Amino acid sequence: MHIPDGFLNATTSIGTGVLAVGGVGTALRQTGRTIATDRRIPLAGISAAVIFVLQMLNFPVALGTSGHLLGGTLAAVLLGPWLGVLVLTVVVGVQALVFADGGVSALGSNLLNMAIITVLVGWAVYRLVRAITPARRWAVTLAVFLAGVASVVASAVAFSIEYAVGGQGGAPLGALVAAMTSVHLVIGLGEGLISALIVGGLLATRPDVVVGAADLDGGPRLGDRGAIVGGLALLAALVFGIAPIASPNPDGLERVALDLGFNETATSHQLADSPLAGYVVDGLGASALAIGVAGLVGAAGVGLAAWFLTRLARRPARR
Amino acid sequence: MSGLHTHALYVHGHSTAHSLAPHVKVAALLAFLAAVVATPRTAVWAFAVHGVGLTFVILRSDLSLGFVARRMAVEVPFVLFAVVLPFVGPGPYVDVLGLGLSAEGLWSAWSILARATLGTGAAVVLAATTEVPDILAGLARLRVPAVLVAIAGFMIRYLDVLAGELGRMRTAAAVRGYRASGFGAMRAMAGIAGSLLIRAFERGERIHAAMVVRGYRGIMPRPFSTPSTAAEWRSGLSLPTAALAVAALAAVL
Amino acid sequence: MTALVAVEGLSYRFPGGDLALDDVSFEIESGERVALLGPNGAGKTTLVLALLGVVMPSRGTIAIGGKALTPESAFELRRHVGLVFQDPNDQLFMPTVRDDVAFGPANYGVTGSRLADVVDAALDRVGARHLADRAPHHLSGGERRRVAIAGVLAMSPHLLVMDEPSSGLDPAGRRELTDLLADLTESLLLVTHHLELAEALCGRALVLDEGRLVRDGTVEEIVADASFLRSHRLS
Fold first, then answer.
1. CB-closest option in B116, B150, B194 to A103
2. Which of C52, C89, C100 is the best residue to mutate to test the B interface, defined by the most B CB atoms within 10 Å of its own CB?
């Protein structure tokens, strides 16, 4: 999913570039205080090498396709979210500049999708699931699995939004989103499964290396509120951004209908069904905003519910 | 070995492109890509000019067009994507060899293919004429944060070592009769990945000790840096300057 | 005269609770070449890391050139003790050989043309100046070993500590290494379980087993003592 040069227009390339610089800059600031004095620079470098190598291993997924690890969730749980962002940033950057894999002008989008969103969304989901489950090994493994799935799907959604906003056009957006998310849901299941198996194995043999589960042994929690907030904000933004694009607007179907002369019935049916049909064609209108807000409210609701459950779950343990 | 390609694209040579200061080359690549991305897609002639310019640089860099073309394999998934566009794009439709294809889809496909090819080709020139340590030094000169450059340095240094370890583990699994299939394959892969991670973390600790005993206190020294001359900047920026002029002209026309 | 290295009653306990070093005492004089022998797990590597202040002893003291090794003095004293690691891959972490050899002196404030001179001189001493612009992972095993030694020599240490320098080398590489080390003028602490290498280079040997110093004598007499060697898994 390394976007090449020219896939997105200049404005989008610059816009995602600015977002990526912001994200990486935040990660640099968050790690800056400690990174130089402890042993984390060589650790980060060698972890980047591991992730680069693991990204080259394909695993079979269902439906005759194969996927490979993105590694965002793994990096977040083993190194902490901010160092994880830096590690994936280096992986993606080196792929572009040294291996000509992924466009240099699309580096901002690629960093955003594969280094920032995968790690922060993975981390936020991981911590949310950990918050509502007991402090046990199986719960860590489950949380890693769900985080892995979410991180890959989030990355695919981000890609779809970028294409919708600043792609070269031509693709029916509804179909693109549907294809991207369904394929990446399957790949995400692979990512989640492998990440969970890896972390589960490490918890059994070397629990000390799983930084994100240090609390199991009574270790210190990471100071990571910013990362969780960042991950949740990204999730909300993705929901907000994708909702209008993904709403029932089967361009491909429309095309078929047009060819077959059924277009009128099809369109009127669609309009009857959904007040939002067709708006993608003429850009993001007021109704898109409404759906976005609805999505945002929904995401916030889930987050709040999780937070509330966390507090409920923790209270008895303290007494 | 294991079929993993961790070798950089560098090809030894003595061309002008090889001898340019690395930060000049990185800056030139960025400027050229900016021009390519900014060129309106309907200005087919402008892309042709970009292509001629890039071809000239490739040939002057002691690289063969075939080598650069082979390295473009990374674009393949997007080529497939582009090929689909004319068939699924919206109307109006144009008749091509008896097929009704979307005009918008055709333009999009052209745009993606042309720009991705120019972009990948230019990136390959940088990677093939610049040794990896020099690319890192160039990034440092362009003010990429030192922490990122240091992490990248460690990553590149240990890629081969780790790929070797991974290859040996896979061989060890294979000689004991392991055959990959289904969920078992994933379990085995996770096991190998876990061992790889633990070995890597332990190596990270040894590296850190090796740094400390030679006086490391948290700041990576950057002992030698390459100076660049005005002539180098002129030479390095000649292609991107031309490309930017072409892009500007195409936008006006 | 003050001993170059003075170790007194040194004990070290792993965070897990096992005793790695148990009441170890010895001195190394300037100009001496000493072999540190012992089976796997005897505590040799821990002792070496303690000499460089990477691990701090649980009990006992270490003095380098008469100055006590503490967390505060470690940075300054490390300059006098150069450690060559067992796996050169762990030690050659910079992108090029030149940068790697420069790493130590640069950390101690050497810059510019003086740094370049120091690097060239160190590479010359191991016959590796032609490798200066290469990346470490493109070198052969023997070349890596020599460059790693250059990286430590560039810091002008008084004592050179080598952890299993012959591991991973073929017979020719081992012979070249022996010749190279024989020509060095620095004091040497050679950690190994290869008796031939110790015999070729060192006059004196310390034998460590299960964290205790069980023998301090000439290499000749130790190598001749077959039952001692067998009882400490050295033959």
1. B116
2. C89
Strands C33-37 and C187-192: parallel
Q: What is the mean pLDDT of chain C?
A: 92
DSSP character string of B24-53: HHHHHHHHHHHHHHHS-TT-HHHHHHHHHH
Q: By the 8 A CB rule, do B91 and A258 touch?
A: yes
State which H helix or E strand residue A58 sits in.
strand A58-60
Bridge partners of residue A145, in order along the sequence:
none
Sign of CA dihedral C102, C105, C107, C109: negative
Strand partners, C27: C6
Shortest alpha-carbon distance between residue A101 and chain B (Å):
6
Instruction: Give residue-wise pLDDT tens across range B119-163.
Output: 889 988 998 898 888 888 889 888 899 889 989 989 988 988 898
Count how many residues are written for chain B.
253
Looking at beta carbons, which residues of chain A come within 8 Å of B139? Answer: 97
Residue among C127, C134, C122 nearest C95 (CA): C134
The pLDDT score that the predictor gives to residue B181 is: 66
In DSSP notation, C132-177 reads TTS-GGGS-HHHHHHHHHHHHHTT--SEEEEESTTTT--HHHHHHH
Separation in Å, CA B207 to CA A79, A190, B133, C32: 17, 33, 18, 29
Among all chains, which residue has been given the structure tokens 């984390």?
A: A40
A279 alpha-carbon distance from chain centroid? 26
Residue type, B194: G
Residue C24's H or E segment, with its range, is: strand C19-28
ipTM (interface predicted TM): 0.88
Please tell me what DSSP assigns to residue C55.
S
> Predicted confidence band at A258 (pLDDT cuts at 50, 70, 90)?
very low
